[in-house]
Amino acid sequence: MDTHNLLVARFVSAVEQLQVMASKRQYKEAAAQLEAVNQLCSHFEAYRDVPKITELREKFKNIKKVLKSHVFSDFSSLGTGKESEETNLLQQLSDACLVVDALEPSVREELVKNFCSKELTSYKQIFEGAELAKLDKTERRYAWIKRRLRTNEEIWKIFPPAWQVDYLLCIQFCKLTRTQLVDILNNLREKPDVGTLLLALQRTLEFEEELAQKFSGGTTHSRNKELGSDEEEADEGENRNKIVSDIRKKYEKKLAVPRDGTELEKEKHKDLSVPGAGFNFRGIISSCFEAHLAVYVELEEKTLMEHLDKLVQEETWETEEGSQTNILSSSMQVFLIIRRSLKRCSALTKNQTLFNLFEVFQRILKAYATRLYARLPKGGTGIVAAATGTDGQIRTSDRDERMICYIVNTAEYCHKTSGELADNVSKIIDPQFTDKVDMSEVQDEFSVVITKALMTLVHGLETKFDAEMVSMTRVPWASLESVGDQSEYVNGINSILSSSIPVLGSLLSPTYFQFFLDKLAASLGPRFYLNIYKCKHISETGAQQMLLDTQAVKKILLDIPTLGKQTALAASYSKFVSREMSKAEALLKVILSPVDSVANTYRALLPEGTPLEFQRILDLKGLKKADQQAILEDFNKHGTSIRHPSVPPSVSLPPAPVAPTAPPLTTTTTTTSTTMTLSSMTSTGTPSAALASREDVLTRAAALGRGAATTGFKRFLALTEAAKDRKDGPFRKLFSP
């Protein structure tokens, strides 16, 4: 009991001493006494219903109110100049902070809040005035707070470091500044000057970065790590707007990512009293510029488009001597200026504005693809072209062919690099936009350029072949006396290919060279076949000579991969050429067949032929109309075996720039079913006999071709005479009615 009474007496004495200290503003002593009284209060917590204890607790509560009032009153004189007049004022305020720490945490929060509000009162008044409430005065705002922090650094040492008064003051300053800048931006009567807007944003970003480093232990968040170094920045912008050119120098600093409104809202729930507790200065002010950066994006697009026009205008459409890439220099320059633009923008924002700029990049690259497409040689148009028969024909010189190859390689480079650009932007843009960053449409544009360019190469060579095709029809096939070496038009075809193919093979990648070859074979094979029909009368000797020419052309085409020094995919190409040229060989073998067996030979070798083509073959053989009548009537009786022509081979280019594992050409052919062939030949006997006879015809026809190609005219003539034996030879059995 005595111990209890002794503690009560100490409680009474401690409260009375604290009361005296409070009245005399003895803050240092009062702070220590507060701790002692707080401990006694805790000890008597169980006796709080005892009147004496209740009285002491209430008295202690009132004393704390008095202390708080005195402290707040004394702090009100801070910043009024009294600290220089009263030498002990700062020490008194420093001691008062000890009292504040001994009181409830809410007291410290209230005191610091009042102090910050008081400090910013003059700032608010100054920068809400008509003279400084302007966008171009933004930098002066940051100069004001930095000057305030610097000049009051010694005075503010009265605050304990744990209070972080300067940290909390800067947070309040940023929030107030953001509010004022939002009002300024929203009240602009017209679009802001881009230079002024970017300068204000740049100064804001720099200020935010300074605060982030100051209050995060000096760590720096590099926003441009993904972009790497850009040594080429030094020669940037000779023809840019002067204001923006001046601002560009500021872009080289590594700045942090601004945040959107959602992130700013989250900051309200963080412990702002502790530096490094999670509050992010980056974007606290600068994010308010985001909605007003459309003028900046417009300027970037205008500048990029001007650069593009200049690059295309200055393009030589040749590559530099010794270049290993074989791509146009303008394409590399286009991506360089895009990269610089991306670097500038990402230093300002990584949100909506960066995505809007990415869409600008898409439009710039599409425009470049359009200019590449427009540079490709075009076919003749107009009345003169129609009158001269050159309408649609594409004429290409050796220089044109090289340029087309450069365009193919350039489009492939752009296809690949645009995808890399999208990947780069995806890594640095705000996550909410990542899924929208896509360059597939742009890549499709360059794929179209590649396909068009390769087809232009094919059409250019086709036009070069025109003269040789005409020469072929002018050969007197009806009056040739003997079979000799290959005809002059074949030499012409060989000369054309020998001139162009080595260059094309050296400039095109294997994928595109293969595509070009398949397209060329798909064009020249059927064209050669149809050109035979354009000849007038073809004698037997003429047909033998033409068959030799056909096989020479076939060999020339088969040698193209070797000529172009690209033999990796030659096997599939060779099969295709052989299939296409075999049709011309088959046609000539039909022409060489005896008159009374020509119909069955035609069915056997050209099962997809038409009655009209068959009649034209009879014309080529020189048969008179009267002689043709009986043959045509017999042919039409068996017309059900004739198939309509199949869909011509379709060639598709694989998506650039991935090299396919199989050749890019796909062909669709239709073969004659065995059942259909047999049903059309019931008059010849049993199905097995008919099949054997048909195979015999094919064997003899193949032998005719081999004879012309390998053993010369004598062997060929012997085989032909054997085929004419209609008494007991196999042709008699097969073709007898």
Strand content: under 5%
Helix content estimate: 55-70%
Order of helices and strands: HHHHHHHHHHHHHHHHHHHHHHHHHEEHHH
CA-CA gap between termini: 145 Å
Structural class: mainly alpha
Radius of gyration, in Å, reads 46 Å
Mean pLDDT value: 77
The major sheet is characterized as:
2 strands, antiparallel
Number of H/I helices? 28
Question: Got a strand count?
Answer: 2
Shape: rod-shaped
Low-pLDDT regions? 218-273, 382-388, 640-652, 654-695, 697-737
Q: Strand order within the widest sheet?
A: 1-2
Fold blueprint:
Blueprint: H1 2-23, H2 27-43, H3 51-75, H4 82-85, H5 89-102, H6 105-127, H7 138-151, H8 165-186, H9 194-214, H10 242-248, H11 261-267, H12 294-314, H13 329-346, H14 352-375, H15 382-387, H16 398-428, H17 440-474, H18 488-507, H19 510-534, H20 540-558, H21 560-563, H22 570-592, H23 598-605, H24 611-620, H25 625-637, E1 650-651, E2 665-666, H26 674-679, H27 687-724, H28 730-735
Describe the structure.
There is one protein chain. The chain has helices spanning 2-23, 27-43, 51-75, 82-85, 89-102, 105-127, 138-151, 165-186, 194-214, 242-248, 261-267, 294-314, 329-346, 352-375, 382-387, 398-428, 440-474, 488-507, 510-534, 540-558, 560-563, 570-592, 598-605, 611-620, 625-637, 674-679, 687-724, 730-735; strands spanning 650-651, 665-666. It is rod-shaped, with a radius of gyration of 46 Å. Strands 1-2 form a two-stranded antiparallel sheet. It is mainly α and 737 residues long. Residues 218-273, 382-388, 640-652, 654-695 and 697-737 have low confidence and may be disordered. It has 28 helices and two strands. Among the domains are: 1-215 and 280-288, no CATH class; 292-435, Tetracycline Repressor, domain 2 (Orthogonal Bundle), CATH 1.10.357; 593-637, no CATH class.
